[in-house]
């Protein structure tokens, strides 16, 4: 029984109303959320917790106590979750895993369908998981390129380069007088420790964050008689518990990384042993090692392809044999490859660079084919159930996957180019990285030109929108004495806020241009085997000059961009202003469970959503009172996810109040399978009491746009911002433009909250369906 009872059987606190506040991006303190310097932690830990004002701690047992009770308002509680995504500056290193996070986003951008168990849905998830696997291989291959090829093979094997870097002297045949470590195979075996340590670090971080996030089990409950069997995606029992899949993907990607290192070391030695005059035993061992690596790669592919997410039930099973044996087998293969490469070969010399073009070219080609296949599957899914508001007509997932692959390529090429320049200095002592990486660097300047053109289009569009919004502002503040400066200022903020809706066009054009330029770079590298400047030999001087400029500028931009990337990431974790500026993108990416890549940054919602559901269900069962789940910005997404996880008997005591919410404007367009019109309409029917507030000046929040009569019931008309156009008796000083913040400052906020509590009342109305 969840509601209050009449007479003497009425439970303590049955007349109490609670407002559970969930903050948004950027984080805050419980003192700011509760507007009181004295707060007490009710439950939780240093990572995420629920706070109350000190005067409201015993509000359920003494309704006369506390400022909220005296004013007839609900007792406020603050759920503070900002430590799940924020921290010290060292956490900016998570940004180095940005390609993994982006490809994981592509998994959740699948178009909505009527039946989630169709083969096309499973194929979509499989293609994204394979794209994520190629990113792991690309990252490890890039580190192998730096440590094995550029450092141990080329620089240590070249006298001039080794003399410039004395720390490589013991590896150089010329400087160490053919010491034990100077043989190429042994140098490679020693250098392989660096990518092996990186792979082990990624495994450790994934395992540690699993203990902090995925190990938090959601509430277990029985299905109630009036509960629909086909629940929305975020309401399924196993949605926020991805333990089994993350464990499988973690061992598969770890094995893929170790096998990549073993292939880089072992195939170099095997290629030497296949030359005429080599020992037959070593040649046979090389062939056996190559075959074993191929079998290991097949096992990794089978693990990735054989199982996806299990959401319809809480899957407690763990593939323990697989989790233990696959990493151990990969470590054993790597050890065998190192021993095989370290075998004495006195006549072996590292005259040229390792053949990395084949490896990087294969990864790039596979990524392009996977993205194209993903486009076909996404188009078929969208055509079966088209939603007009879906971003890029269902192709957002493939576009984002393309950008993830491009980020991986740029980061790999950038690190390789910078290390090659550092080792080589101003001379020409080593050959440098593979030609393909140089071609990839050369396409960055034309891509930037396209982006600059898009920025120019956005600026022009903003000016056009500002003129349109000026008319709307004059109409909204009709009767006020008009001031051109004030009107222009408000109209400019509104125009800038509307640019969020242009993001699909920007992402789509960038992805198409990236795919085309990447294909041209791959074709150029494979067809000529030379850098862009070398391929332009014999061409017109203008063409050759442009090729040389693009090659040099692209290499320089990659290095500068990499430094700026880490610097901005660190600032975003330490500076609240920067955190609010770019935090929405990061919080959107880490909101979703790791379904495509286990090394992506951890999903904070797998901790936050169970926290909220446990608190809501526990308080309502204990008191039978009414609860307003009040979410701002990203907090509204967490609130909606928690509401979906509640059973109907609990949910009927909950009213949902969202403000500055990206539920439809961002999540509904980019993630239609889970936040599309059908899902949001179901949420409205489930919670019954839902009100959404937004402003035209808000660049993140917006209306829910539910169909039929549901729309006006949920969406309040856009709130006035600023509250006063000019100086008035109530606002004698100029009113600020609040935009995305301080929704509680509007008097309508408290009014809408009272209306929601009144609708809940003592006798709960049944959920209403909307056409």
TrEMBL record:
Keywords: Membrane, Transmembrane, Transmembrane helix
Transmembrane segments: 92-109, 121-143, 188-205, 251-272, 284-304, 325-343, 363-382, 394-416, 436-459, 506-529, 549-569
InterPro entries: AB_hydrolase_fold
Record flagged with keyword Membrane: yes
SUPFAM superfamilies: alpha/beta-Hydrolases
Designated name of the protein: Integral membrane protein
Organism whose genome encodes this protein: Streptomyces apricus
Phylogenetic placement of the source organism: Bacteria, Bacillati, Actinomycetota, Actinomycetes, Kitasatosporales
């Amino acid at each position: 029984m969840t509601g209050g009872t009449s007479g003497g059987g009425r439970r303590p606190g049955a007349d109490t109303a609670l407002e559970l506040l969930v903050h948004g991006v950027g984080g805050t303190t419980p003192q700011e959320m509760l507007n009181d310097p004295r707060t007490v932690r009710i439950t939780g830990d240093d990572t995420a917790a629920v706070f109350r004002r000190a005067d409201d701690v015993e509000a359920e047992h003494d309704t006369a106590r506390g400022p909220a009770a005296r004013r007839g308002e609900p007792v406020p509680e603050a759920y503070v979750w900002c430590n799940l995504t924020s921290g010290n500056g060292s956490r900016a290193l998570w940004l180095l895993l940005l390609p993994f996070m982006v490809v994981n986003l592509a998994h959740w951008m699948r178009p909505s369908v009527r039946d989630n168990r169709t083969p096309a849905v499973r194929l979509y998830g499989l293609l994204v998981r394979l794209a994520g696997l190629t990113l792991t291989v690309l990252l490890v291959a890039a580190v192998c390129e730096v440590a094995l090829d550029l450092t141990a093979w080329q620089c240590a094997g070249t006298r001039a380069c080794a003399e410039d870097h004395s720390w490589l002297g013991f590896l150089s045949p010329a400087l160490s007088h053919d010491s034990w470590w100077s043989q190429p195979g042994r140098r490679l075996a020693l250098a392989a420790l660096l990518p092996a340590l990186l792979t082990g670090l990624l495994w450790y971080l994934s395992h540690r964050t699993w203990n902090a996030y995925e190990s938090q089990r959601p509430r277990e409950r029985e299905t109630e008689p009036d509960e629909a069997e086909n629940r929305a995606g975020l309401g399924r029992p196993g949605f926020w518990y991805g333990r089994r899949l993350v464990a499988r993907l973690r061992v598969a990607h770890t094995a893929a990384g170790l096998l990549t290192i073993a292939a880089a070391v072992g195939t170099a030695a095997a290629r030497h042993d296949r030359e005429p005059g080599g020992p037959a035993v070593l040649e046979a061992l090389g062939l056996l090692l190559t075959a074993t690596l191929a079998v290991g790669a097949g096992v990794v592919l089978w693990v990735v392809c054989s199982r996806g997410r299990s959401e319809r039930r809480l899957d407690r099973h763990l593939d323990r044999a697989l989790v233990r044996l696959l990493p151990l087998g990969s470590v054993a293969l790597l050890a065998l490859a190192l021993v095989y490469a370290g075998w004495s070969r006195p006549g072996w010399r590292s005259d040229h660079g390792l053949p990395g073009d084949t490896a990087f070219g294969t990864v790039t080609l596979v990524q392009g084919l996977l993205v194209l296949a993903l486009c076909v599957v996404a188009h078929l899914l969208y055509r079966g159930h088209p939603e007009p508001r879906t971003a890029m007509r269902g192709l957002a997932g493939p576009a984002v996957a393309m950008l993830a692959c491009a980020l991986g390529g740029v980061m790999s090429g950038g690190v390789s180019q910078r290390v090659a320049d550092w080792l080589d200095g101003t001379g020409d002592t080593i050959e440098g990285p593979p030609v393909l990486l140089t071609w990839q660097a050369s396409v960055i300047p034309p891509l930037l030109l396209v982006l600059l053109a898009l920025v120019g289009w956005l600026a022009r569009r903003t000016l056009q929108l500002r003129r349109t919004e000026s008319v709307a502002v004059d109409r909204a503040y009709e009767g006020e004495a008009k001031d051109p400066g004030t009107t222009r200022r408000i109209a400019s903020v509104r125009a800038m806020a509307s640019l969020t809706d242009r993001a699909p066009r920007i992402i789509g054009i960038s992805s198409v241009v990236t795919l085309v330029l990447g294909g041209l770079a791959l074709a150029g590298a494979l067809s000529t085997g030379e850098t862009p400047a070398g391929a332009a030999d014999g061409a017109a001087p203008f063409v050759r000059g442009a090729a040389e400029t693009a090659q040099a500028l692209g290499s320089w931009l990659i290095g500068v961009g990499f430094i700026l990337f880490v610097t901005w990431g660190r600032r975003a974790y330490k500076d609240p202003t920067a955190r609010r500026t770019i935090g929405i993108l990061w919080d959107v990416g880490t909101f979703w469970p790791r379904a495509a890549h286990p090394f992506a940054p951890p999903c904070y919602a797998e901790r936050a959503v169970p926290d909220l559901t446990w608190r809501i269900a526990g308080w309502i069962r204990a008191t039978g009172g009414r609860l307003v789940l009040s979410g701002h910005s990203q907090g509204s997404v967490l609130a909606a996810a928690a509401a979906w996880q509640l059973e109907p008997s609990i949910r009927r005591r909950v009213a949902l109040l969202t403000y500055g919410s990206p539920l439809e404007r961002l999540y509904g367009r980019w993630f239609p399978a889970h936040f599309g019109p059908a899902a949001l309409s179901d949420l409205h029917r489930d919670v019954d009491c839902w009100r959404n507030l937004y402003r035209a000046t808000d660049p993140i929040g917006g209306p829910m746009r539910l169909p039929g009569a549901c729309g006006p019931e949920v969406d309040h008309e856009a709130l006035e911002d600023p509250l006063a156009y000019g100086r008035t008796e109530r606002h004698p000083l100029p009113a600020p433009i609040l935009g995305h913040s301080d929704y509680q400052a509007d008097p309508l906020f408290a009014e809408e909250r009272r209306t929601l509590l009144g609708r809940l009342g003592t006798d709960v109305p049944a959920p209403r369906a909307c056409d």
